[in-house]
From TrEMBL:
It comes from Jiulongibacter sediminis. It is found in: Cell membrane. One of its GO terms (cellular component) is plasma membrane. InterPro entries: DedA-like, VTT_dom. Residues 42-169 form the VTT domain. Its main location: membrane. This is Alkaline phosphatase. The lineage of its organism: Bacteria, Pseudomonadati, Bacteroidota, Cytophagia, Cytophagales. Pfam families: VTT_dom. Keywords: Cell membrane, Membrane, Transmembrane, Transmembrane helix. Belongs to the DedA family.
Length: 212
């Protein structure tokens, strides 16, 4: 049990992941968080930002262009994995019997949401924890066209990776003392993303319920 606890503490610690796992660990976590439903809790935003900071400081021995391309590929491929899983296995979810934890009205609300906001959702969702993981799966579930999904997947992935990694790299390169404030950066990201997710969730829920 203690080993399991230690493992989860490790994967939630972006600073330790970068220092011990390097590029491989970063890419793997980004891939899982962007397309596999059980990866929704992984630290995507501040992992990207801190990887840029560490690269700028020289603590992560990877060329910035390689870092950008590797993370971008992981984000895009991860979302394709989520889309395909939703596309091919979504019917099994729709036919699932209702129970305490599963209600078909949630599927209906999801379809309504993607019918109205689908394309834009895939870009905005990149910057929203949890939603970032499930948006590609739900896009596949509602059978969004692959061409449309691909466009917004690539654009959204590019913006997400570019803004966070390049922003972190710039700060790490120009302001090396930022390493002393890593924990405050993580707290800042957590506060902002938590607020955004909760606000977006309740706003979308209210709008969808008004339409039903």
């Amino acid at each position: 049990m203690e080993q399991i606890t230690d493992f989860f503490q490790y994967i939630m610690n972006s600073e330790e992941i970068i220092q011990t796992g390097g590029l491989i660990a970063i890419v793997l976590i980004v891939y899982i968080e962007n397309g596999l439903f059980f990866g929704f809790f992984l630290p995507g935003d501040y992992l990207l930002f801190l990887s840029g900071v560490f690269c700028g400081l020289g603590l992560l021995k990877v060329n910035i262009y390689l870092l950008l391309m590797a993370i971008f590929a992981a984000a895009v491929l991860g979302s394709y994995t989520g889309y395909l899983s939703g596309y091919f296995f979504g019917e099994a979810l729709e036919n699932k019997k209702e129970n305490l934890f599963f209600k078909k009205k949630h599927i209906k609300r999801t379809k309504k949401y993607f019918e109205k906001y689908g394309s834009r959702t895939l870009i905005i969702a990149r910057f929203l924890p949890v939603i970032r993981t499930f948006a590609p799966i739900l896009a596949g579930l509602v059978k969004m066209k692959l061409v449309n999904f691909s466009i917004y997947n690539i654009v959204g992935g590019g913006l997400w990776v570019g803004i966070l990694v390049i922003g972190g790299y710039y700060l790490g390169d120009r302001f090396p003392w930022i390493i002393n404030y890593v924990h405050w950066i993580i707290i800042f990201f957590l506060a902002i993303t938590t607020f955004t997710v909760l606000k977006g969730y309740f706003s979308a829920k209210q709008e969808i319920e008004n339409e039903l």
